[in-house]
Amino acid sequence: MAKYEIIIWWSKEDDCYLAEVPELAGCMADGETLAEVTEAVEESIKLWIEINTERGIAIPEPKGRLLYA
Question: Whose CA is closest to 22, among 52, 43, 45?
Answer without folding.
Answer: 45
